[in-house]
Design a protein that fits this description.
CATH class of the largest domain: Alpha Beta
Bound molecules: magnesium ion
CATH superfamily of the largest domain: HAD superfamily/HAD-like
Largest sheet: 9 strands, mixed
Shape: globular
Helix content: 25-40%
Strand order of the largest sheet: 1-13-12-11-2-3-4-5-6
Number of strands: 13
Length: 249
C-alpha cells in the first residue's frame, strides 16, 4: 500500500483532478470518526465544509452500510450526486439488484441472541447489522453472534466489521457493484473510493487501478486497497488537496 499524501504519490490525485472523475466515500470511519454511540456519528465541521466545496467541483457519492435515509440525514445540507445505503442495495431512490426478505433471518438471530449483553440487532430492512461495541467482552459477543448465524437457514452473506457483523441476503448488490454502476452512470474516466472496513473491500477487490483509485483509511496488509491514509482525520487533507488541485485546473 502507498501513502496517498506522500509527495511521491502527488501525481495520482493530480490525474484525478484533471479527469472526469467521481469521488466516493464510505461514511463511518471515513468521513466521520467512529464513536461509541453510532447514532451520534457526524462529520467534523472542517470535513463538512471541505466536502461541500468538493461537491461543487466533482460528482460526489457516499456509499454506506447504514440505511440510506440514515446516512442521507447525516450529509445535510450538502448536495451530493449520489447517496447509497445498505452496502450498495439502496442507490438514490431505487433498490439495486437482488434484495431478499430478511424477516426470517432477523427472527432467528433475535431468538439466538436474546439476553446477550451489549449486542443489538439493527434492522435496516435490506440488511441487518449486529452491533457489539457495547458488549462487556467483544470476543465473547462475537463468538455468540457467530453461533447464532450458524442457526440461520436462509442464504445470507456475512461481512465482518469494526465491532459489527453485517448480514446481507446472499447475492446482494455490494459496494463494488454500485461503484461500477456509478462510474457508468456518470461517464467518468476515473473514480476515487475511500473506505475503512471489510465491506469496502468489495470495491478495493475490483482491482481496477486504471479506473478506481482504491484508498483505505488505515494501512492494512490484509486489504486489497492500493493506497492509504494513516488516520481518519487525514480525510480533511485529502479533501483539501482534491479541492485545491481542481480549483487550479
Ligand atoms: Mg466505514
Amino acid at each position: 500500500m502507498k501513502y496517498i499524501l506522500s509527495p511521491d504519490q502527488a501525481g495520482v490525485l493530480a490525474r484525478v483532478a484533471h479527469a472526469r472523475a467521481l469521488i466516493a466515500f464510505d461514511f463511518d470511519g471515513t468521513l466521520a470518526p467512529i464513536v461509541p454511540d453510532r447514532t451520534r456519528a457526524a462529520m467534523r465541521d472542517s470535513t463538512r465544509a471541505l466536502l461541500a466545496s468538493l461537491a461543487r467541483l466533482y460528482p460526489v457519492a457516499v456509499v454506506s452500510g447504514r440505511a440510506r435515509s440514515d446516512v442521507a440525514a447525516r450529509m445535510e445540507p450538502i448536495e451530493l450526486r449520489h447517496v447509497v445505503g445498505n452496502h450498495g442495495m439502496e442507490c438514490d431512490g431505487e433498490h439495486l439488484g437482488f434484495t431478499g426478505d430478511l424477516a426470517a433471518v432477523r427472527a432467528t438471530l433475535a431468538r439466538e441472541l436474546a439476553g446477550a449483553p451489549g449486542v443489538e440487532i439493527e434492522d435496516k430492512r435490506l440488511s441487518l447489522s449486529v452491533h457489539y461495541r457495547a458488549a462487556p467482552s467483544h470476543a465473547e459477543a462475537l463468538a455468540r453472534i457467530e453461533r447464532a448465524i450458524e442457526e440461520v437457514d436462509r442464504p445470507i452473506r456475512v461481512i465482518g466489521g469494526k465491532l459489527v457483523t453485517n448480514v446481507l441476503p446472499a447475492g446482494a448488490t455490494n459496494k463494488g457493484d454500485v461503484m461500477l454502476e456509478l462510474v457508468e452512470r456518470e461517464h467518468v474516466d476515473v473514480a476515487v473510493y475511500v473506505g475503512d472496513d471489510v465491506t469496502d473491500e468489495d470495491v478495493f477487490e475490483l482491482d481496477r487501478p486504471d479506473r478506481i483509485v482504491a484508498l483505505r483509511v488505515g494501512e492494512a496488509a490484509t486489504s486489497a486497497a492500493d493506497f492509504y491514509l494513516r488516520e481518519q482525520d487525514e480525510i480533511d487533507q485529502l479533501l483539501a488537496r482534491l479541492v485545491e488541485l481542481r480549483s487550479g485546473v
